[in-house]
Automatic annotation (TrEMBL):
Pathway: Carotenoid biosynthesis; lycopene biosynthesis. SUPFAM superfamilies: FAD/NAD(P)-binding domain. One of its GO terms (cellular component) is membrane. This is Amine oxidase. GO terms for molecular function: phytoene dehydrogenase activity. FAD binds at S156, E175, A176, V383.
């Protein structure tokens, strides 16, 4: 477990693919693509039925090269002509297009070339256009240059500062903790191993993040994996199955084909039962999607007569991955928004890992860019109060140190739960700020588990479909910095982890050992022939003699308030970046933007906040998307003023600042509960249990 990044060993071991995927069809206009999708779905359904007749092996079979070569071309022809065309019968059963069963030792470890269609989308072009607009401001010497103070050094605050510096403004970031990144922050343990706040994956459908990587010249730090989704088979422990995206088939046909060719998770009739629910989304788009915010995934599913197995086979995985909660608690607008983004971009669901820890490999590069352009990024500098003038505008920031920070413009890039504790009393009765009371972050736990042996090497993100786990990855295989040929390091998302997230158990207040024992039980089920019986972990007591892998060490990272809880009815309360205060702007992935609570959402929100300030400085009218109507229920409220509570704890106590940390003391647990009483037990009880 060396602190030295084994990049050279990784590069020597891995076969990096540089050849471009087959390009059969160009990116299609949406109004032409959806009719093509509907026509090809009938053809794909026929193909699925045909393949199930000719391919009935119980175990994976070798891929038939003829089918791989011909099927995509014939499917592409069906998409353009509307006439289904069946591929020639294979010489042997094939899983090339079928949703294939895999085991870890069958996978090849390789990174793939940058997906060709990522930048060939309207969303990417819009991201690049906004970047160009802000850079043009920086070239215009006649525009006034503003001094901007930004509270929060997560992805949103850094993006805001980056684009303000591009526009020629002087941006200073004030981060309370001694590490940048917020929800993507990381730190090293005593062995030099990196502990990350969360398991973070980059998607092709992250246009503003991809645009940012291009502008920072760090696209080579993205390790793209094969274009597929991998699911653990609950009924077949130790085995996995995939949605395979055929190269050369454009969106949305590739997504439909990947699902229709699946005969392991859903039957053909169950897939077809989903069509009536999805057709309104395809026809009406975002207008229909926004109307579903009042329904949970489960309610939406039953309203439209979708089969119950959709919940267990698909929605549970999606809900946990998108918002760390179960589908009976998640607003359907989140799932439909994600599907709408991914469906419309050919490489939207292709995934990439960053090649190392985010503070070094991303945040440090942003910091360098900001400071090169005249800005400043400060860590270990907590803000104590936002001080206002008589007219409600910001007078200055008061730091915990007693220092006063004066600027022309101020930005909050704090998480919603932290921001609510800083809202000045003068603002607390304003409907714009009062709507924030309707939003709160969701708890989540991230685990790191080092084993003494290499487990099944799936070089990708895996959806566990487990009651306790969301997604996981063997970072010793997927990531250059953590590369290890002899031992596995699993990073896992433990969710839902609290009644606040809809769970039955408050795992946030459990000891690390209790959390790890529960996880070992899940891993024993996922890897039945590999995890050893270990007296230290009672949940493994039934493991057979085949299992030999034992846990060497672990880290448990709690984030009491992560992305905003996207429960039904909350989306409409997300505030715009433009506020009623003429020198104050909001950022953060919880503010109104079209990419949900995510790295993409955080980056876009920071960029939009920068645009608000640049438009104001240049005397330009605000954009329509920079404003948002406030709900009548909020507008009509009669509110009493509230004094800001502030946030307590030192800069080492990450939880006090809205990100994650390891709880190893009574004081740390006390600070978590002091700032957020709903989270759990007081420290004395916690230590007694330990």
């Amino acid at each position: 477990m060396s602190a030295e990044p084994p990049r050279a060993a990784y590069a020597a071991h891995n076969d990096v693919q540089f050849e471009a995927p087959l390009q059969l069809l160009p990116q299609q206009p949406r109004n032409l693509v959806w009719p093509a999708l509907l026509s090809v779905m009938a053809g794909a359904a026929a193909v699925a039925a045909w393949m199930m007749r000719v391919s009935t092996p119980a175990r994976p079979q070798p891929i038939d090269v003829d089918l791989v070569d011909t099927a995509p071309k014939q499917m592409a022809m069906a998409a353009t002509t509307g006439v289904p065309s069946l591929p020639t019968a294979p010489k042997r059963p094939s899983t090339a297009l079928n949703m294939k069963m895999i085991t870890g030792d069958e996978t090849q470890q390789k990174d793939y070339a940058y997906p060709k269609q990522v930048k060939n989308t309207d969303n990417y072009r819009n991201a690049a256009a906004l970047s160009a607009k802000l850079k043009d401001d920086g070239k215009n010497a006649g525009l006034p240059k503003k001094k901007v103070a930004i509270i929060g050094g997560g992805l949103s605050g850094l993006a805001c500062a980056k684009y303000l510096s591009d526009a020629g403004h002087e941006a200073t970031v004030y981060e309370a903790r001694n590490v940048l990144g917020g929800k993507v922050s990381a730190w090293q343990d005593e062995d030099g191993d990196w502990i990350e706040t969360g398991l973070h994956i980059f998607f092709g459908a992250y246009p503003n993040v991809m645009n940012l990587f291009e502008e920072l010249d760090i696209e080579d730090r993205l390790q793209w994996k094969i274009h597929k989704m991998i699911f653990a088979m609950q009924e077949l422990p130790g085995e996995f199955t995939t949605f395979d995206f055929v190269p050369g088939i454009p969106a949305p046909l590739n997504f439909a084909l990947a699902i229709l060719m699946n005969d392991k998770m859903l039957t053909l009739s169950e897939k077809l039962q989903c069509l009536p629910a999805l057709l309104p989304m395809l026809i009406e788009g975002q207008e229909f999607i926004d109307k579903q915010d009042e329904l949970s995934c489960l309610e939406f599913m039953r309203k439209y007569g979708m089969p119950e197995r959709i919940n267990t086979e698909v929605f549970i995985s999606m809900a946990k991955a998108l918002d760390f909660i179960d589908p009976d608690k998640l607003s359907m607008v989140v799932v439909l928004t994600a599907m709408n983004r991914f469906l419309n971009e050919t490489d939207g669901l292709q995934m990439a890992f960053l090649d190392g820890n985010q503070p070094d490999r991303l945040c440090a590069v942003e910091k360098e860019h900001i400071e090169k352009n005249g800005g400043t990024v400060k860590t270990g500098t907590p803000v104590a109060e936002i001080v206002t003038n008589d007219d409600g505008t910001v007078k200055h920031l008061l730091l915990r140190s007693g220092e006063i920070v004066e600027a022309d413009e101020y930005v909050s890039a704090m998480p919603v739960d932290v921001f609510k504790r800083f809202i000045p009393e003068a603002w607390s009765t304003m409907p714009y700020f009062r709507q924030c009371d309707e939003l709160e972050g969701i708890p989540v736990i991230n685990l790191h588990m080092w084993f003494d042996k290499k487990l099944k090497q799936v070089d990708h993100l895996c959806f566990s479909r487990s009651p306790l786990l969301s997604v996981y990855a063997d970072m010793s295989t997927t990531c250059k910095e953590y590369w290890d040929t002899e031992k596995s390091m699993l990073e896992l998302v433990f969710a839902p982890c609290s009644p606040l997230a809809g769970g039955n158990v408050n795992w946030m207040s459990k000891t690390d050992e209790e959390i790890i024992d529960a996880t070992m039980g899940e891993l024993a089920r996922l890897f039945p022939l590999e995890i050893a019986a270990d007296d230290k972990w009672p949940s493994t007591k039934n493991q057979g003699p085949e299992g030999t892998a034992k846990l060497l060490k672990y880290a448990v990272v709690r984030t009491p308030r992560s992305v905003y809880a996207a429960i039904p009815g909350r989306n409409k309360f997300r505030p715009a970046q433009l506020t009623p205060i003429k020198n104050f702007t909001l950022a953060g992935d919880w503010t109104a933007q079209k990419f949900l609570g995510s790295m993409e959402g955080a980056t876009l929100a920071g960029k939009l906040a920068a645009e608000v300030i640049c438009d104001r400085a240049a005397g330009r009218p605000y954009q329509d998307y920079q404003t948002r109507a406030i709900q009548a229920s909020i507008q009509m409220g009669d509110y009493e003023p509230k004094k800001p509570l502030g946030v307590h704890g030192d800069i080492e106590n990450a939880i006090a600042w809205g990100a994650g940390m390891e709880i190893k003391s009574k004081g740390a647990m006390d600070k978590m509960v002091e700032n957020d009483p709903a989270q759990g037990v007081k420290g004395a009880e916690y230590v007694a249990r330990v």
